[in-house]
Amino acid sequence: MGSQAASNNANPWRGEARLQFVRSGARTIHQGSSSAPLKLQRAFHQASGHCELPLLHTAGGLVGGDELLIEAQLAAGSQALLTSVAAQKVYGSVGRCRLTPEGRWARQHLHVQLEPGSDLEWLPQELVVYAGGLYQQQARVELAAGSSFLAADVVRLGRTAAGEELGDGCWRSALEIRRTTAASPRWLLVDRLELGGAALHDPHGLAGQPVFGSLVWAAPQALAREQLDELLANCRADRAGLEGEMACGALEQGLVARYRGHSSQAARFWFSRIWRHTRLLRGLPPPELPRVWPFQEQPLQQRQTCSA
Predict the structure, then answer these.
(1) Which of the chain's ends, N or C, has fewer CB atoms near its CB within 10 Å?
(2) Distance CA 163, CA 120 (A)
(3) CB distance 76 to 120 below 8 Å
(4) Distance CA 135, CA 38 (A)
(5) Which SS3 state, helix, strand or coil, does residue 200 take?
(6) How far apart (Å, rounded) are the C-alpha atoms in residues 117 and 148?
(7) Please, are residues 131 and 92 in contact by the beta-carbon 8 Å criterion?
(8) pLDDT tens, residue order, the chain (308 aa)
(9) In the chain, where are the structural domains located?
């Protein structure tokens, strides 16, 4: 699909995936449904007990007006890892159509409900926003006591290998995480980001760098100060040898990490190592990279070699 044809799409997609995960013995099983262009792929079971489920976007990319909805409900004690089969593309929209010269937004909505003791890892592959592309993602996460949620995003703004920048395009993200307590629901994080216009070159934005990454972990329990300090120290040490600027800090119950630079590989490597730390801190086996990820490298193995 060419970017010009994509920008003039008169019949946008409205794809949905509705998923339920339940604990069955030592592992988690799933059931659910999807509608085009989303398709559920074969699930795999990791040694940790996580049900690894890839989602396939069959349309080859998002165009202005497309909208995706992903809903996931995890029953008590269930564990799931959701990922995507391939990198997602967002085609240019601004200035491509006389009827809507301002462009049209492509949107994705993620709604997650975690019951007590459940664990969701949301790890889609890279998002690439073409020049003039408009993309907005919204995630709302409801956590019960003792549940864990980890999410990571890596976005490339413009096809930089072809010398392309984002131009008049824009990427927006809104993440809301709320935990239910005995007294009342409590917000853990409300994170709203917008990258476009002046923010692409502002030193407090991307400072002219094309890749942005964000990782958030809502831990199942509050971490002791010693645990949290050690976790952050390990995550910062894992930046060694990686290109770009990386920072991480504590949440009230968890952590947040940010990346900006030129290398989506470096962002993936760092986030994979942080992911490993969150697993080990809970006494779980180290993560297994999803089978659909096209890595020729081994970020987890590299970390173990470096620390030997």
Answers:
(1) C
(2) 37
(3) no
(4) 17
(5) helix
(6) 7
(7) yes
(8) 444 444 456 688 999 999 999 999 989 999 999 999 999 999 999 999 999 999 999 998 999 999 999 999 999 999 999 999 999 999 999 978 888 888 899 999 999 999 999 999 999 999 999 999 999 999 999 999 999 999 999 999 999 888 899 999 999 999 999 998 777 789 999 999 999 999 999 999 999 999 999 999 999 999 999 999 999 999 999 999 999 999 999 999 999 999 999 999 999 999 999 999 999 999 999 999 999 987 656 777 544 443 33
(9) 3-307
Question: Amino acid letter at 147?
Answer: S
Give residue 146's region: left, alpha or beta (phi > 0; psi -120 to 50): left
SS3 85: coil
Asked whether the beta carbons of 225 and 208 are under 8 A apart, the reply is: no
**Under 8 Å between Cβ of 192 and 185:** no
| pTM, 2 dp | 0.92
In the block, which residue shows the tokens 């659910």? 32
Give bridge partners of residue 72 from the DSSP assignment. 19, 112
